[in-house]
Amino acid sequence: MQFKNSSHLILIFILIIILPQSLFAMHIMEGFLPVYWSITWFIVIIPFLLIGLMQIRKKVNENSKVKILLGVAGAFMFVLSALKLPSVTGSCSHPTGAGLGAILFGPFVMTVLGSIVLIFQALLLAHGGITTLGANTFSMAVIGPFVAILIYKIFDFFKAPRWLSVFLCAFLGDLATYTMTASQLALAFPSANGGISTSLIKFLSIFSFTQIPLAISEGILTVLIFNFILKHNKEELKILNLLKD
Amino acid sequence: MIYIDKYAYFNRLKDVHPVEKFSLAIFTLFITVASNSIFIPAISFAIMSLIILLAARIPLFFYAKLLLLPLFFLFAGVLSVATNLNDQDMICSVLFTGHRFCVSASSLNEAVKIFTKSMGSISCLYFLVLTVPVTEIINILKKFKTPILFLELLVIVYKFIFIIFETMDRIYISQKSRMGYENYKLSYKSLSKLISSVFIISLKRYEDLYHALESRCFTGDFHFYQRKYNFSKINIFVIFMFDGILLAMSFFSRGQF
Fold first, then answer.
1. Nearest Cβ partner for B129 among A126, A221, A236
2. Together in a domain, B218 and B236
3. Which H/E stretch holds residue B84?
4. Looking at the partner chain, which of A8, A120, A229 has a beta carbon nearest the beta carbon of B157?
5. What ipTM is given for this predicted complex?
6. Element housing B245 (H / E)
7. Which residue does chain A place closest to B219, by CA atoms?
8. Domain presence at residue B107
9. What is the distance in angstroms between the Cα of A226 and the nearest Cα belonging to chain B?
10. Is position A12 within any domain?
11. Residue-range definition of the domain harbouring residue A233
12. Is the pLDDT confidence value at B25 over 90?
């Protein structure tokens, strides 16, 4: 069997049907990963979760207000992820604010919050899953925030303009999440004739349709939000100072 | 609003003990994910869908819509597993943008396996989320010695999700009715305003809640009412039989189907 001209048509047809459905396209769905990889990713995230919980515990002991503040922040992140982002290839959603959260709360606390958001996305929105929770947490709540905070720190150190460092922090944090998810899939399903690297290229290219436009729009949006809050609501941000040392 | 949560409280199985439903969903999920055949996931998909539709009485249309939700991920993932570049023992190939994408028998086999496994396990997840409310899941997690702090955060997040969701929904509707999302430029502007105002409103809500709690002698712990359920021996027997048979089948049919 060979398709030449019709293959383009078929591809376009499939994309038209499927793309409007592409909400949270990068959550690895329930049951997609083999058992040993599911368990591996759960084990990998445990130290990050424990350090995050210890940091939160320390702050809660100083002031019990922090617990509620973090709960509100988690709920806010969840609601944001249920929102549709305007993006070129259909509208997609995402645990937005991984970058923003990492700047405000620190990466380890973000891991705890991110895992909670992912649990609720599985339970309330049927996105992601229970067996793939470990893998999703690692890419979205460990790699994303850590890359985001690193980029922000670097650009802040070189005195780059605020909008640039915020944009790059959200944009690259998103791209890191997308690359990590593709790597997790590639590790679980290495290609028969090219191994893991070929498989990685396959997954990266097929998800780039939605993920690269999404990362750009998330970067722009984060800058707009950051500016808006700084301009109009500086007073309210003082509440967040509770979380700073 | 969030319909899955609504159904979790108002389905026909709402009086069944949550631990029974939880263990049915989780055991079946684990057996499905661990299975190496097409047969076992197909059985769990069929049984779970029947329970969801006939016993819990979730509307067919809603369940079908839920099943379509992860379609993009499933499609993209299965496609990447099924195709290879320039494979030798292909059974079918497509020429696209100058590259030859091939599908071989073994990769097709693996792709079908992943597809059925995902569908089977997602039906288990849907059974869990459509019949067990989040509050009961948190109660069950408590029995598994999950760190208390983590559970408390779960509870607070769950309580706040609905407050924030409602606020956001109202602002979104009013923005939309004023042509706030007509084009890309306007969408970005409206969306950034929406998110920042919801952010500020959430912080205000948090302050209000804290004042209310503190005026009622808040010490840092939350106490919630827990509903009492009764275990049913028949249900437990049926769950063990079903999962036992499924486990035995997956054990004896390893790699055969």
1. A126
2. no
3. strand B83-85
4. A120
5. 0.88
6. helix B233-252
7. A64
8. no
9. 8
10. no
11. 23-243
12. yes
